[in-house]
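Tokens for chain A. Residues wanted.
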């Protein structure tokens, strides 16, 4: 129902434009479906996802698998376009704190895949060279364990991050790294990924963030590095074969540890922050979205089979407004001039009226890592 009005506007504007082809769309703005294989759409989608990755402090860099839906809303008075993008994504091997671009990050192998969907608003004003993602939300799930057990019974399977043996593996691995470190010592920030497998004994594989420890090598460390930020990420393992332990550790240090936590947005020149009273608040200091991690879909289906109504597999809400006429979003901070610049934002369009060219072609077409 929320989409009724935009649709009416669309038809009106389409007929308007048919009779005055030279005239630019004026307020109210129009929404049109765009092809998911459209070159511009794909490049905007990649840009938006990079922007999302830069905004995050937690989790792994996401890469674009395919564009699932794209709508363009031309703004009145030639302000450019606001896109409503639905993107199917895959987790890469890089942590977001590495600030690496997804194209420089390795894909995860199928058995350790995490996949999902993001919704994002993406604003482009070509003449002012503004590309900006005012809001996003994503939902991720691990690849089905049942499917992996079928395809690759010997592959490691994901472990609960709170499993004490996972924590032990991370501690043992870090202890090895610290023993081999020249002087600096590191402490465990948190475990970010874990899996286990039987190889002559139970083997645990972990990924964990580390921070600098206030202690040096010669001290017995009792000090806590409380609010220090993570400086790197390690991959480690612990295999116990009878009485013998095999431990490994391999750490990667983030390049710019200070700037990793500054609020940064690409293609945004923040000159002055004007305080007006926008209906929806937009700025580059407030968090613009979040990534939600949900469990294996199979677990949920067996557990909650008596749930009422159809439940979406990858629920992602991005409702800056529920007003069918839309609300204004102040984006003045994106512009250098003194004027007030506002966008009209509509409720996020639902999937029904997407273009026949959607979803676009997938990089990884395996249906087990594609949201429906
Ligand atoms: C970009 O925004 C400015 C408003 O500052 C507007 O005058 C201009 O026409 C816009 N250009 C495009 C291509 O959207
Ligand atoms: C994004 O998702 C969270 C829950 O995951 C929700 O609380 C929030 O309202 C969503 N943001 C928008 C703009 O809809």
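Reply:
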């Amino acid at each position: 129902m929320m989409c009724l009005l935009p649709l009416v506007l669309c038809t009106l504007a389409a007929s308007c434009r048919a009779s005055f082809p030279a005239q630019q769309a004026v307020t109210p703005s129009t929404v049109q479906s765009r092809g998911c294989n459209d070159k511009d759409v794909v490049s905007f989608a990649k840009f938006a996802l990079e922007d999302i990755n830069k905004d995050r402090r937690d989790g792994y860099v996401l890469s674009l698998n395919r564009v699932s839906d794209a709508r363009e809303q031309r703004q009145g008075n030639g302000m450019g376009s606001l896109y409503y993008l639905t993107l199917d994504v895959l987790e890469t091997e890089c942590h977001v704190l590495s600030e690496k671009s997804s194209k420089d990050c390795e894909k995860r192998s199928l058995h350790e895949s995490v996949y999902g969907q993001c919704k994002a608003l993406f604003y482009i004003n070509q003449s002012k060279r503004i590309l900006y993602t005012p809001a996003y939300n994503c939902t991720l799930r691990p690849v089905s364990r049942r499917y992996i057990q079928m395809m690759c019974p010997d592959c490691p399977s994901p472990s609960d991050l709170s499993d004490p043996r996972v924590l032990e593996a991370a501690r043992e691995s870090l202890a090895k790294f610290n023993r081999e470190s020249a002087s600096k010592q590191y402490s465990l920030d948190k475990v970010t990924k874990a899996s286990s497998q039987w190889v002559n004994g139970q083997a645990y594989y972990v990924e964990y963030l580390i921070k600098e420890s206030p202690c040096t090598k010669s001290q017995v460390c009792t000090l806590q590095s409380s609010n220090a930020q993570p400086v790197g990420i390690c991959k480690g393992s612990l295999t116990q074969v009878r009485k013998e332990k095999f431990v490994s550790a391999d750490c990667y240090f983030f390049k710019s540890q200070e700037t990793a936590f500054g609020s940064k947005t690409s293609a945004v020149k923040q000159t002055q922050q004007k305080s007006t009273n926008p209906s929806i608040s937009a700025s580059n200091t407030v968090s613009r979205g979040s990534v939600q991690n949900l469990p294996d879909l199979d677990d949920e289906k067996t557990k909650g089979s008596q749930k009422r109504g159809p439940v979406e597999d990858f629920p992602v809400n991005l409702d800056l407004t529920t007003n069918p006429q839309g609300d204004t979003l102040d984006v003045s901070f994106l512009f250098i001039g003194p004027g007030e610049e506002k966008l009209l934002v509509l409720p996020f369009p639902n999937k029904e009226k997407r273009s026949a060219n959607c979803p676009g072609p997938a990089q990884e077409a395996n249906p087990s890592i594609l949201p429906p």
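DSSP finds five helices and 13 strands in the chain. Residues 1-27, 257-279 have pLDDT under 50 and may be disordered.
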